[in-house]
């Protein structure tokens, strides 16, 4: 299972992640993204939702591998 985190400080509430993976993300009472169901979409859709974030506020990790954002080497 993927580990998905949203940096609430960085999030601007664009809603792009909600549009891409509505089964996983919703906006909270403050208009910030939150993970409501980490298994609510295919892994590829979750990574696509993270990529859609204009401020890169979403981190997706699979086990020991960070899928998004891609770590700099």
Structure description:
Helix content is 21%, strand content 27%. It is of the alpha+beta class and 73 residues long. The protein has a single domain, classed as 2-Layer Sandwich (Alpha-Beta Plaits). The longest helix has 10 residues, at 43-52. The chain is globular, with a radius of gyration of 11 Å.
Number of helices: 2
Distance between the termini: 25 Å
Strand content: 25-35%
Major β-sheet strand ordering? 1-4-5
**Main structural class:** alpha+beta
Segments where pLDDT lies below 50 for 5+ residues? Answer: none
Total number of beta strands: 5
Gyration radius (Cα, Å) is 11 Å
Count of spatially separate domains: 1
Q: Helices and strands, in N-to-C order?
A: EHEEHEE
Mean pLDDT equals: 97
Helix content: 10-25%
User: What would CATH call the class?
Assistant: Alpha Beta
| Largest pleated sheet | 3 strands, antiparallel
CATH topology: Alpha-Beta Plaits
Q: Give the CATH architecture.
A: 2-Layer Sandwich
Q: What would the principal axes of the Cα set say about the shape? A: globular
């Amino acid at each position: 299972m993927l580990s998905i985190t949203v940096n609430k400080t960085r999030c601007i509430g664009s809603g792009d992640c909600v549009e891409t993976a509505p089964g996983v993300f919703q906006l909270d009472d403050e208009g910030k993204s939150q993970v409501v169901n980490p298994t609510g979409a295919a892994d590829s859709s979750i990574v696509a939702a993270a990529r859609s974030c204009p401020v890169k506020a979403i981190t997706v990790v699979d086990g020991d591998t960070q899928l998004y954002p891609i770590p700099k080497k």
